[in-house]
Specification:
single chain; about 280 residues; alpha+beta; HSP40/DNAj peptide-binding domain; 3 domains; four-stranded mixed sheet; 9 helices; about 30% helix; rod-shaped
């Protein structure tokens, strides 16, 4: 057989049944269809070669074979093209073809932005294949950050990434990072506020202001004579943490008592007298 022998192109032996020829043609057509190979010139040439070989065999069958080949069970070329447009082919195509790897982007936001929720513009650079040509394009994607979002959360935008074909598009993964805050720490939906106080303030009471993430100023009072702040004490204020859906965290004030390094004999005597 010559190199351009139609049977060799289809990978079948001469004299095989029309059903085997149909199967070979369908298999090779699916494998080398340009839509499955990025529209490359090589795939187009190979697909045309396969189709030409099939038509060649079809037109040159002997009379005996023609009865079998062109009878009721003959393969209709139109049927083949309908198959390419049918959902079965699309499903087969989608499952077999490699999806483009996702585009990964990182967005850094403040704790205040996490508290309020925000919209962040993000410039996306992706490639798209059109008519076998790979092109670059840029799109500005507005990422909607929900209230209470935390570091390392991932938001996925389906089919917004690189494009091989209209039925095969990649995703965009956006990773959220939250900057360290100068005043607050975060623990789940709770806000942690560390407050250093003196031993005198722990024993005698104190009052101070806290600027909340909402921008409001809250006054915290521990009036003299009401209670003593002991080491490790935490004051928990409900409803002043971050929110996520129906869940709202707390504001947790952790008191750290700074003890004096030493006391004079006079002060020791006064403390002993006061605590006697």
């Amino acid at each position: 057989m010559s190199e351009k022998d139609p049977y060799k192109i289809l990978g079948v032996n001469k004299g095989v049944s029309s059903e085997e020829i149909k199967k070979a043609y369908r298999r090779l057509s699916l494998q080398h269809h340009p839509d499955r190979n990025g529209g490359s010139d090589e795939s187009k040439q190979r697909f045309q070669e396969i189709t030409g070989a099939y038509n060649n065999i079809n037109n040159n069958q002997t009379n005996d074979n023609t009865t079998d080949f062109m009878g009721n069970n003959a393969f209709d070329l139109n049927e083949m093209f309908k198959f390419f447009q049918h959902g079965d082919f699309q499903e087969h195509f989608s499952s077999q073809m490699n999806k483009p790897i996702p585009i990964i982007k990182t967005i850094v936001i403040t704790l205040e932005q996490s508290y309020d929720g925000c919209s962040i513009p993000l410039e996306i650079e992706r490639w798209i294949i059109e008519n076998g040509v790979k092109k670059q394009e840029t799109e500005t994607l507005y990422v909607q950050i929900p209230k209470g979002s935390d570091s390392n959360e991932i938001m996925i935008y389906r089919n917004k990434g690189n494009v091989i074909s209209p039925g095969n598009m990649g995703d965009i993964k956006v990773i959220i990072k939250i900057q360290s805050h100068t005043i607050y720490q975060r623990h789940g939906l709770n806000l942690i506020y560390n407050k250093n106080i003196t031993l005198k303030e722990a024993l005698c009471g104190l009052s101070f202001d806290i600027k909340h993430l909402s921008g409001k100023i809250f006054k915290i009072n521990n009036a003299r004579g009401t209670s003593i702040i002991s080491p490790g004490y935490q004051k928990i204020i409900q409803g002043l943490g971050l929110s996520r859906g129906e869940h709202i965290g707390c504001l947790v004030i952790r008191f750290n008592i700074i003890f004096p390094e030493k006391l004079s004999h006079e002060n020791i005597a006064l403390i002993e007298k006061a605590l006697y």
